[in-house]
Amino acid sequence: MEEVEQRPERLPRMPIGTVRALTGNRVKLPGMGLLKALHVGCVALSFAGYLARGIWMLRDSPRLRARWVRVVPHVIDTLLLVSAIALTIRLQQYPFVHDWLTAKVLALIAYIVLGAIGLKYGRTRKIRIAAWVAALLTFGYIVAVALTRQVLPFPTLI
Ligand code: HEM
């Protein structure tokens, strides 16, 4: 009787998001380094810009109304968001699917709203300062979530 060769079934290919989740996000992906560097670079510039504008707000500085001060943050924040979207696609981990990214997006919305109140729409100086400080704390939370990939990052970080 003729022998039939039995080929082993191919293992199903797992999405890279699943592989990363199973390996504690330790798998390195090609091209991630550059994207992440762009993302983190924009994060640093966005933070520095927001801090500086807050200090100018506290000092009632006319610099706050300079054209470049109103334009450059939008360019940085757009790049920040584009790099964030590219990272999620590369990682195959998405907001409203993976909790830590949902937390990041919701916190980003809070940061934008608090930031707008702090630098522009707050009626009194007290309100603007409170919103500015709250926005800085929210920014810190977003970074902590990014570093730990946990919705409640602080027990992990401390
Ligand atoms: C103010 C807003 C944001 C800040 C401060 C921020 C901060 C960071 C930081 C510091 C990292 C590097 C983490 C590391 O070194 O492992 C990072 C990575 C990342 N961020 Fe953001 N981010 C922001 C917005 C977003 C948004 C809106 C998304 C997506 C919806 C996003 C998606 C990602 C992804 C996918 C990574 C890569 C994580 C990994 O390597 O596993 N980020 N972010």
Name a few traits of the molecule.
158 residues; mainly alpha; 6 helices; globular; binds protoporphyrin IX containing FE
Task: Note down, in words, how this protein is organized.
By secondary structure, the protein is mainly alpha-helical. It has one domain (16-157). The chain is 70% helix and 0% strand. It contains six helices and no strands. The chain has helices at 16-22, 32-58, 67-91, 99-121, 125-148, 154-157. Helix 2 runs antiparallel to helix 5 (125-148). The longest helix is centred in the first third of the chain and has 27 residues, at 32-58. The radius of gyration is 21 Å and the shape is globular. The chain starts with 15 loop residues before the first helix and ends with a helix. The mean pLDDT is 88. The site of protoporphyrin IX containing FE has 20 residues, from helix 2, helix 3, helix 4 and helix 5.
Cα(first) to Cα(last) distance is: 68 Å
Q: Bin the helical content.
A: 55-70%
What is the percentage of strand-forming residues? under 5%
N-to-C series of helices and strands: HHHHHH
Rg, Å, rounded? 21 Å
As for the number of domains, it is 1
Which word captures the global form?
Answer: globular
User: What would the average pLDDT be, to the nearest integer?
Assistant: 88
Total strand count, please?
A: 0
Write a brief caption for the model:
The protein has 158 residues and is an all-alpha fold. The protein is built from 6 helices and no strands.
